[in-house]
Amino acid sequence: MDAYLVAVLTVVLIYALLAVGLNLQFGETGLINFGHVAFFALGAYASALSALKGLPLGLSFTLGAAVAAVSAIPLGMAALRLREDYLAIVTLGFSESVRLVLQQEREITFGVQGVPGIPKLFGSLGPGLTDWAILGALVLAVAVAAWATHWLKNSPFGRLLRAIRDNEAAVIALGKDSARFKIQVFMFGAALAGLAGAFYAHFLTFISPEQFVPLVTFYVWMSIILGGIGSLRGALAGTLLLVAFLEGSRFIRDIFPGIAEVQMASVRLALVGLAIIAFVLWRPQGLFGQAPR
After folding, report:
1. 47-54 LR contacts (CB < 8 Å, sep 24+)
2. Is 92 contained in some domain?
3. Residue 64 lies in a domain
């Protein structure tokens, strides 16, 4: 049972890193990113493949975050020319393009077979302590990311981001270069997603393209909606709430033993969806979002 709880908490913290980055992009700047999973995948593959080549894990984690951040530059440049709805389509297409490249490029990424044998973070500590050490490292990473995001939100940079979200034309009229700030926000959010991907790869020790489908992005979107868009506390609490919905539904069969195993996936999906709809109806602004005036 302890191993299961540690694994669930590890997933919560990995998704929390993703949610913090997406919340900064959309909640603070108004940039709709439906391709967040692409940076998650790039970070995971860059870190995993470099570690298999013999690069120390500290450098491979840094490389994973850096590759994800650099790959966000084209999307940041696209955000300068596209309206919100078109940007959403482009980012979704970008994530699928990345997944297809990972799937087809067998010589580098091993294609659909995935990447096995990834060195586990803190693997030298032994089976009993490794997962606990990874969990501790994730707690530290999420704490640092949350502190950095909070500092950015309360700095002149953060105020300018909110101004871009609310009235970009006015920001440009005041002589500010909104393009540069959009690209920087995309890169920062992508770097957090890449770091989350590195943790994911070195926790599971196996990754494949099918683990990085668009559903991952929409799980992160649900997290920030449940917690409250634009709220750092909301991004963290919403992630915990979403994983509680998803994992708690695994025990439904204990309550309704008459449900067949084949039908359980559909029942879980329906009940999780109903629970999220009920929550949004009860508190549309999320747990920590501001209620509309």
Report:
1. 47/194, 47/197, 47/198, 47/201, 47/202, 48/115, 48/118, 48/198, 48/201, 48/202, 48/207, 49/108, 49/109, 49/115, 51/118, 51/119, 51/202, 52/115, 52/117, 52/118, 52/119
2. yes
3. yes
